[in-house]
Structure formats: C-alpha cells, structure tokens
Amino acid sequence: MTIQGAALGIFIILKPPSKDMIQTAKSAGIYRSPYRSQSVDKIEIVTVQEIL
C-alpha cells in the first residue's frame, strides 16, 4: 500500500479470514476521510461470498 501511495486497500479472499489476517489488517490503522466525518480500516478484508 505504501509503495503505491494508496490510502486504502481491499483484500479479496475466498474463505473467511483467519485471526492473524484480521489482526494484520487492523494493524494498518484507520483512515479518516478529509471530506466526510467517517473513519474506516485502511485495509478491508472481503470474501467473494460477501461480494456476491
């Protein structure tokens, strides 16, 4: 994420995330939008099933 200069990232996976995956994603921190009063995780883990 930092190499490309991206503020956010989405990690799309086939199976539910492991505890380690969730912990690693959470450790990336929180993104606070300068345009909205909304904060989200910098890395969002999403399963294919959630997308469908």
Write the layout of secondary structure elements.
Elements: E1 9-13, H1 19-27, E2 30-32, E3 39-41, E4 43-47, H2 48-51
Parallel strand pairs: 1-4
Antiparallel strand pairs: 2-3
| Low-confidence residue ranges | none
What's the helix count? 2
Provide mean pLDDT, rounded: 92
Shape descriptor reads globular
User: Measured on Cα atoms, how large is the radius of gyration?
Assistant: 12 Å
Strand line-up in the sheet with most strands: 1-4
* Measured distance between first and last alpha carbons: 25 Å
How does the major sheet shape up? Answer: 2 strands, parallel
Structural class: alpha+beta
Query: How many strand segments?
Result: 4
Strand content: 25-35%
- Helicity, in percent? 25-40%
Tell me the count of domains: 1
Helix-strand topology string: EHEEEH
Protein architecture, described:
This protein is of the alpha+beta class and 52 residues long. The chain has one domain (9-51). It is built from 2 helices and 4 strands; from the N terminus they run βαβββα. The protein has helices at 19-27, 48-51; strands at residues 9-13, 30-32, 39-41, 43-47. Strands 1-4 form a two-stranded parallel ribbon. It has a two-stranded antiparallel sheet with strand order 2-3. It is globular. The termini are far apart.
